[in-house]
From TrEMBL:
Alphabetical UniProt keywords: ATP-binding, Nucleotide-binding, Transport
Pfam families: ABC_tran (PF00005)
ABC transporter domain span: 6-242
InterPro entries on file: AAA+_ATPase, ABC_transporter-like_ATP-bd, ABC_transporter-like_CS, P-loop_NTPase
Name the UniProt record assigns to this protein: Phospholipid/cholesterol/gamma-HCH transport system ATP-binding protein
One GO MF term attached to the UniProt entry: ATP binding
Amino acid sequence: MSDPIITMRGIRTQFGPKVIHDGLDLDVMRGEILGIVGGSGTGKSVLLRSIVGLLTPAAGQITVKGIDVHRASGREHALLGRSLGVMFQDGALFSTLTVRENVEVPMRRLDLPAGVRSELADLKISMAGLPWDAGGKYPSELSGGMRKRAGLARALALDPELVFLDEPTAGLDPIGASEFDRLIRGLTDTLGLTVFLVTHDLDTLHACCDRIAVLAEKRVLATGSIDQLRRIDHPWVHEYFNGPRARAAMEQTARKDD
Ligand SMILES: Nc1ncnc2c1ncn2[C@@H]1O[C@H](COP(=O)(O)OP(=O)(O)OP(=O)(O)O)[C@@H](O)[C@H]1O
Protein backbone atom coordinates (compact mmCIF):
# COMPACT_ATOMS: atom_id res chain seq x y z
CA MET A 1 0.00 0.00 0.00
CA SER A 2 2.16 2.85 -1.21
CA ASP A 3 1.07 5.16 -3.99
CA PRO A 4 -2.40 6.64 -4.47
CA ILE A 5 -4.43 5.02 -7.24
CA ILE A 6 -7.18 7.65 -6.86
CA THR A 7 -6.62 11.32 -5.98
CA MET A 8 -9.28 13.92 -5.33
CA ARG A 9 -8.35 17.56 -4.96
CA GLY A 10 -10.54 20.56 -4.19
CA ILE A 11 -13.77 18.78 -5.13
CA ARG A 12 -16.89 20.90 -5.13
CA THR A 13 -20.18 19.20 -5.97
CA GLN A 14 -23.52 20.91 -5.99
CA PHE A 15 -27.07 20.37 -7.20
CA GLY A 16 -28.57 23.77 -7.87
CA PRO A 17 -27.87 25.87 -4.81
CA LYS A 18 -27.29 22.80 -2.61
CA VAL A 19 -23.55 22.29 -2.03
CA ILE A 20 -22.63 18.68 -1.18
CA HIS A 21 -18.82 18.79 -1.24
CA ASP A 22 -16.65 21.86 -0.93
CA GLY A 23 -12.87 21.66 -1.00
CA LEU A 24 -12.84 17.89 -0.59
CA ASP A 25 -9.43 16.17 -0.79
CA LEU A 26 -8.84 12.42 -0.54
CA ASP A 27 -6.35 9.78 -1.70
CA VAL A 28 -7.14 6.09 -2.09
CA MET A 29 -3.99 4.00 -1.82
CA ARG A 30 -3.31 1.07 -4.12
CA GLY A 31 -4.28 -2.23 -2.51
CA GLU A 32 -6.33 -0.89 0.37
CA ILE A 33 -9.96 -1.23 1.33
CA LEU A 34 -10.97 2.32 2.16
CA GLY A 35 -14.24 2.65 4.05
CA ILE A 36 -16.22 5.85 3.50
CA VAL A 37 -18.53 6.81 6.34
CA GLY A 38 -20.57 9.88 7.16
CA GLY A 39 -24.07 10.91 8.13
CA SER A 40 -26.94 10.42 5.74
CA GLY A 41 -26.78 12.88 2.87
CA THR A 42 -23.12 13.84 3.36
CA GLY A 43 -22.45 12.81 -0.24
CA LYS A 44 -20.80 9.39 0.01
CA SER A 45 -22.64 7.93 -2.98
CA VAL A 46 -22.29 11.19 -4.90
CA LEU A 47 -18.53 10.99 -4.37
CA LEU A 48 -18.48 7.39 -5.60
CA ARG A 49 -20.47 8.37 -8.69
CA SER A 50 -18.08 11.28 -9.33
CA ILE A 51 -15.01 9.03 -9.20
CA VAL A 52 -16.46 6.54 -11.67
CA GLY A 53 -17.36 9.37 -14.03
CA LEU A 54 -21.16 9.32 -13.68
CA LEU A 55 -21.19 12.83 -12.18
CA THR A 56 -18.98 15.81 -12.91
CA PRO A 57 -17.99 17.99 -9.97
CA ALA A 58 -18.45 21.76 -10.33
CA ALA A 59 -14.77 22.20 -9.44
CA GLY A 60 -11.68 20.21 -8.55
CA GLN A 61 -9.89 17.25 -10.08
CA ILE A 62 -10.24 13.49 -9.71
CA THR A 63 -7.58 11.21 -11.11
CA VAL A 64 -7.74 7.43 -11.35
CA LYS A 65 -4.48 5.70 -12.29
CA GLY A 66 -3.11 9.12 -13.20
CA ILE A 67 -5.96 9.88 -15.64
CA ASP A 68 -8.08 12.96 -15.05
CA VAL A 69 -11.52 11.29 -15.00
CA HIS A 70 -13.50 14.27 -16.24
CA ARG A 71 -11.05 15.36 -18.92
CA ALA A 72 -10.11 11.94 -20.26
CA SER A 73 -9.82 11.17 -23.97
CA GLY A 74 -11.91 8.40 -25.53
CA ARG A 75 -9.01 5.97 -25.26
CA GLU A 76 -8.42 6.86 -21.60
CA HIS A 77 -12.13 6.43 -20.85
CA ALA A 78 -12.04 2.95 -22.31
CA LEU A 79 -8.96 2.15 -20.20
CA LEU A 80 -10.66 3.42 -17.04
CA GLY A 81 -13.85 1.53 -17.87
CA ARG A 82 -11.88 -1.73 -17.93
CA SER A 83 -10.14 -0.96 -14.63
CA LEU A 84 -13.26 -0.23 -12.58
CA GLY A 85 -16.06 -2.39 -11.26
CA VAL A 86 -19.03 -0.90 -9.46
CA MET A 87 -21.61 -2.54 -7.25
CA PHE A 88 -24.49 -0.15 -6.66
CA GLN A 89 -26.56 -0.07 -3.49
CA ASP A 90 -29.55 -2.01 -4.85
CA GLY A 91 -27.50 -4.35 -7.06
CA ALA A 92 -28.83 -2.43 -10.11
CA LEU A 93 -29.37 -5.64 -12.06
CA PHE A 94 -31.41 -5.72 -15.27
CA SER A 95 -34.61 -7.50 -14.27
CA THR A 96 -35.22 -8.96 -17.76
CA LEU A 97 -31.79 -10.60 -17.92
CA THR A 98 -30.61 -13.70 -16.08
CA VAL A 99 -27.75 -13.35 -13.58
CA ARG A 100 -25.32 -14.73 -16.18
CA GLU A 101 -26.55 -12.26 -18.80
CA ASN A 102 -26.24 -9.44 -16.26
CA VAL A 103 -22.63 -10.38 -15.56
CA GLU A 104 -21.98 -10.55 -19.31
CA VAL A 105 -23.19 -6.97 -19.88
CA PRO A 106 -19.83 -5.26 -19.17
CA MET A 107 -18.07 -7.95 -21.28
CA ARG A 108 -20.06 -6.99 -24.36
CA ARG A 109 -17.55 -4.25 -25.15
CA LEU A 110 -14.86 -6.95 -25.47
CA ASP A 111 -14.63 -8.93 -28.65
CA LEU A 112 -15.23 -12.37 -27.09
CA PRO A 113 -17.06 -15.42 -28.47
CA ALA A 114 -20.40 -15.94 -26.70
CA GLY A 115 -19.26 -19.24 -25.17
CA VAL A 116 -16.18 -17.68 -23.58
CA ARG A 117 -18.25 -14.79 -22.23
CA SER A 118 -20.67 -17.16 -20.63
CA GLU A 119 -17.88 -19.29 -19.09
CA LEU A 120 -16.21 -16.18 -17.71
CA ALA A 121 -19.55 -15.02 -16.30
CA ASP A 122 -20.00 -18.38 -14.54
CA LEU A 123 -16.52 -18.03 -13.04
CA LYS A 124 -17.37 -14.57 -11.62
CA ILE A 125 -20.70 -15.90 -10.33
CA SER A 126 -18.92 -18.62 -8.41
CA MET A 127 -16.24 -16.17 -7.17
CA ALA A 128 -19.07 -14.10 -5.70
CA GLY A 129 -20.16 -17.17 -3.75
CA LEU A 130 -23.35 -17.96 -5.66
CA PRO A 131 -24.43 -21.57 -6.29
CA TRP A 132 -23.79 -23.09 -9.74
CA ASP A 133 -27.39 -22.78 -10.87
CA ALA A 134 -27.72 -19.06 -10.02
CA GLY A 135 -26.51 -17.98 -13.47
CA GLY A 136 -29.75 -19.08 -15.13
CA LYS A 137 -32.02 -17.33 -12.64
CA TYR A 138 -33.63 -13.93 -12.92
CA PRO A 139 -33.00 -11.29 -10.22
CA SER A 140 -36.60 -11.62 -8.99
CA GLU A 141 -35.92 -15.30 -8.17
CA LEU A 142 -33.02 -14.41 -5.84
CA SER A 143 -32.89 -13.32 -2.20
CA GLY A 144 -31.56 -9.84 -1.40
CA GLY A 145 -28.20 -11.30 -0.38
CA MET A 146 -27.93 -13.29 -3.60
CA ARG A 147 -28.78 -10.20 -5.66
CA LYS A 148 -25.92 -8.40 -3.93
CA ARG A 149 -23.59 -11.25 -4.82
CA ALA A 150 -24.80 -11.07 -8.41
CA GLY A 151 -24.05 -7.33 -8.38
CA LEU A 152 -20.57 -8.13 -7.07
CA ALA A 153 -20.06 -10.76 -9.79
CA ARG A 154 -20.93 -8.14 -12.39
CA ALA A 155 -18.54 -5.63 -10.76
CA LEU A 156 -15.79 -8.25 -11.15
CA ALA A 157 -16.69 -9.02 -14.77
CA LEU A 158 -13.72 -7.29 -16.38
CA ASP A 159 -11.10 -8.26 -13.77
CA PRO A 160 -10.98 -4.70 -12.42
CA GLU A 161 -8.14 -3.32 -10.32
CA LEU A 162 -10.55 -1.03 -8.50
CA VAL A 163 -13.90 -2.00 -7.07
CA PHE A 164 -16.54 0.43 -5.78
CA LEU A 165 -19.10 -0.92 -3.35
CA ASP A 166 -22.05 1.18 -2.26
CA GLU A 167 -23.54 -0.10 1.00
CA PRO A 168 -22.76 -3.77 0.24
CA THR A 169 -24.28 -5.10 3.47
CA ALA A 170 -27.33 -2.83 3.73
CA GLY A 171 -30.47 -4.90 4.15
CA LEU A 172 -28.64 -8.15 4.89
CA ASP A 173 -29.19 -10.09 8.09
CA PRO A 174 -26.14 -10.10 10.42
CA ILE A 175 -24.96 -13.55 9.30
CA GLY A 176 -25.36 -12.70 5.62
CA ALA A 177 -23.57 -9.39 6.23
CA SER A 178 -20.58 -11.09 7.95
CA GLU A 179 -20.34 -13.60 5.10
CA PHE A 180 -20.31 -10.72 2.64
CA ASP A 181 -17.62 -8.90 4.67
CA ARG A 182 -15.45 -12.03 4.56
CA LEU A 183 -16.04 -12.39 0.82
CA ILE A 184 -14.95 -8.80 0.17
CA ARG A 185 -11.82 -9.16 2.31
CA GLY A 186 -10.96 -12.52 0.75
CA LEU A 187 -11.42 -11.35 -2.84
CA THR A 188 -9.42 -8.19 -2.18
CA ASP A 189 -6.51 -10.14 -0.76
CA THR A 190 -6.61 -12.84 -3.43
CA LEU A 191 -7.07 -10.60 -6.45
CA GLY A 192 -5.01 -7.64 -5.18
CA LEU A 193 -7.93 -5.24 -5.54
CA THR A 194 -8.29 -1.70 -4.30
CA VAL A 195 -11.74 -1.15 -2.82
CA PHE A 196 -13.72 2.05 -2.23
CA LEU A 197 -16.44 0.97 0.16
CA VAL A 198 -19.31 3.23 1.19
CA THR A 199 -20.97 1.93 4.32
CA HIS A 200 -22.82 2.69 7.55
CA ASP A 201 -22.00 -0.74 8.88
CA LEU A 202 -19.56 -0.67 11.79
CA ASP A 203 -19.05 -4.42 11.62
CA THR A 204 -17.95 -4.05 8.00
CA LEU A 205 -15.44 -1.38 8.98
CA HIS A 206 -13.96 -3.72 11.57
CA ALA A 207 -14.00 -6.80 9.37
CA CYS A 208 -12.86 -5.34 6.06
CA CYS A 209 -11.36 -1.90 6.04
CA ASP A 210 -7.68 -0.97 6.19
CA ARG A 211 -8.49 2.70 6.56
CA ILE A 212 -11.56 4.86 6.93
CA ALA A 213 -12.42 8.31 5.61
CA VAL A 214 -15.09 10.35 7.37
CA LEU A 215 -17.23 12.72 5.32
CA ALA A 216 -18.62 15.66 7.28
CA GLU A 217 -18.94 19.38 6.79
CA LYS A 218 -18.80 18.92 2.99
CA ARG A 219 -15.30 17.46 3.01
CA VAL A 220 -13.18 14.59 4.29
CA LEU A 221 -12.95 15.51 7.93
CA ALA A 222 -10.50 12.77 8.90
CA THR A 223 -8.90 9.56 7.70
CA GLY A 224 -7.32 6.78 9.72
CA SER A 225 -7.82 3.50 11.50
CA ILE A 226 -10.81 2.95 13.78
CA ASP A 227 -8.53 3.52 16.79
CA GLN A 228 -7.30 6.82 15.38
CA LEU A 229 -10.80 8.00 14.51
CA ARG A 230 -12.13 7.12 17.97
CA ARG A 231 -9.89 9.86 19.34
CA ILE A 232 -11.15 12.62 17.01
CA ASP A 233 -12.90 15.40 18.85
CA HIS A 234 -15.93 15.98 16.62
CA PRO A 235 -19.50 15.31 17.76
CA TRP A 236 -20.58 13.06 14.87
CA VAL A 237 -17.26 11.21 14.68
CA HIS A 238 -17.17 10.73 18.44
CA GLU A 239 -20.71 9.39 18.60
CA TYR A 240 -20.23 7.13 15.58
CA PHE A 241 -16.99 5.53 16.76
CA ASN A 242 -17.69 5.53 20.51
CA GLY A 243 -21.47 5.10 20.69
CA PRO A 244 -23.21 1.90 21.84
CA ARG A 245 -23.24 0.32 18.37
CA ALA A 246 -19.53 1.00 17.96
CA ARG A 247 -18.82 -0.62 21.30
CA ALA A 248 -20.88 -3.68 20.32
CA ALA A 249 -18.98 -3.98 17.02
CA MET A 250 -15.65 -3.70 18.86
CA GLU A 251 -16.60 -6.34 21.39
CA GLN A 252 -17.66 -8.67 18.57
CA THR A 253 -14.31 -8.14 16.81
CA ALA A 254 -12.43 -8.76 20.06
CA ARG A 255 -14.34 -12.04 20.56
CA LYS A 256 -13.49 -13.15 17.01
CA ASP A 257 -9.81 -12.37 17.62
CA ASP A 258 -9.72 -14.44 20.86
N1 LIG B 1 -28.89 13.67 -9.00
C1 LIG B 1 -29.12 14.42 -7.92
N2 LIG B 1 -29.82 15.56 -8.00
C2 LIG B 1 -30.06 16.32 -6.90
N3 LIG B 1 -29.62 16.02 -5.66
C3 LIG B 1 -28.93 14.89 -5.52
C4 LIG B 1 -28.63 14.02 -6.63
N4 LIG B 1 -27.91 12.96 -6.20
C5 LIG B 1 -27.75 13.16 -4.87
N5 LIG B 1 -28.36 14.31 -4.47
C6 LIG B 1 -28.36 14.85 -3.11
O1 LIG B 1 -27.02 14.88 -2.66
C7 LIG B 1 -26.98 14.61 -1.25
C8 LIG B 1 -25.96 13.50 -0.99
O2 LIG B 1 -26.50 12.28 -1.52
P1 LIG B 1 -25.78 10.89 -1.33
O3 LIG B 1 -26.68 9.86 -1.91
O4 LIG B 1 -24.40 10.96 -1.84
O5 LIG B 1 -25.73 10.77 0.24
P2 LIG B 1 -25.09 9.62 1.13
O6 LIG B 1 -24.05 10.24 2.00
O7 LIG B 1 -24.67 8.48 0.26
O8 LIG B 1 -26.37 9.27 2.00
P3 LIG B 1 -26.93 7.86 2.59
O9 LIG B 1 -25.96 7.47 3.65
O10 LIG B 1 -28.26 8.24 3.14
O11 LIG B 1 -27.02 6.88 1.44
C9 LIG B 1 -28.40 14.27 -0.82
O12 LIG B 1 -28.97 15.41 -0.24
C10 LIG B 1 -29.10 13.93 -2.11
O13 LIG B 1 -30.45 14.25 -2.07
